Amino acid sequence: MFFVISKLIEFFLLPSNLVALLGLAGILAMLLGKSRLGRACIVASILALTIFGWSPLGPAALMVLEDRFPQPTLDKPVTGIILLGGAVDTHISSDRYTLAINEAGERLTATVDLSRRYPDARIFLSGGSGHIGGAGTLTESQVARDILISLGVSPQRIDMEERSRNTCENGTESATSVQPKPGELWLLVTSASHMPRAVGCFRAAGFDATPYPVDYRTRGAADLKRPTSSISVGLAETDLAAHEWFGLLSYRIAGLTAEMFPASH
User: Fold this and answer.
1) How does DSSP assign 68-117, residue by residue?
2) CB-based contacts of 229, cutoff 8 Å, min separation 6
3) Does 126 lie in the same domain as 96?
4) Which helix (H) or strand (E) holds 210?
5) Residue at 204 is within a domain
């Protein structure tokens, strides 16, 4: 139930959707003869589109997330590498009979690189269907496994779970499947902006994996001094940041995590 409710609430809170909903509300109000309210909603929609699309708001919100966990210094053998779902498109993969990678595909290439640097490390994939009504489609772990194998990773090294639908379920299902032992070094591979939420969920599950952030979307402080290159780019970054901040807040309110904004030990 939490999964469905959180998806529905997020739909109305995503900045790009909010812009459209404000505009539609303005048009509806105008058609109903409420001109003043209609004009106010349309003006608010245009202002929101400008702020979310062109201003550094999205990059700034993303940068705070991406800078939370630095790249780790690895000074002992790596026991295993955990790759979280989110780097593939299961619907396209299923409907087009292909292996579709999305904009977070660096999670996969980083995992391949780590698998070569640490040839004795196990590889664990965590990801079921992260969509409402996703029954019957391929799971994220299935598609990721096929991609990793196509890139040269031995199938004998790969284990996976296909039950999790969100990040906290990634944590609990991974902990149950892997059962990490004290002293083991497990790397947690996911997008840098997603890492705070992932760490919070894994810690709540009792799995203290080492964050290995990849897939950065911001360059640094210079991004805060210039407008985005296009409204579509700005909206995408603002939506991604809103998705992560909403996730951090909702997980904490629901009691799924013990920290609102986890940090390095």
Assistant:
1) SSPPPP--S---EEEEES-SB-HHHHHHHTS--B-TTTHHHHHHHHHHHH
2) none
3) yes
4) strand 210-214
5) yes
- pLDDT above 80: residue 133: no
Burial 215-227 (b: 16+ CB within 10 A, else e): bebbeeeebeeee
Q: What predicted TM-score, i.e. pTM, was given to this entire model?
A: 0.92
Cα 205–chain centre separation: 18
CA dist., res. 201 & res. 2, Å (int): 15
Domain assignment present for 172:
yes
Do 16 and 98 lie in one domain? The reply is no
| 32 CB neighbour count, 10 Å cutoff | 10
Question: Domain range for residue 51?
Answer: 2-66+228-253
Q: At what angle do helices 231-253 and 2-13 cross, to 10 degrees?
A: 140
Closest CA to 217 of 229, 200, 205: 229
Whether pLDDT at 128 is above 70: yes
- State the maximum Cα–Cα separation within the chain, in Å, rounded to a whole number: 70
- Same domain? 192 vs 122: yes
Mean local confidence (pLDDT), 33-60: 96
> Residues 113, 29: one domain?
no
Q: Is residue 244 part of a domain?
A: yes
Structure tokens at 106: 């660096």
Let me know the angle formed at the C-alpha of 199 by 194 and 203, rounded to the nearest 5 degrees. Answer: 155
Q: Does residue 44 sit in the same domain as residue 156?
A: no
Domain contains 35:
yes
111 with 206, same domain: the answer is yes
Looking at residue 3, its pLDDT comes to 65
Look at the chain and report how many structural domains it folds into.
2
Using alpha carbons, select from 226, 209, 219, 234 the residue that is nearest to residue 63: 219
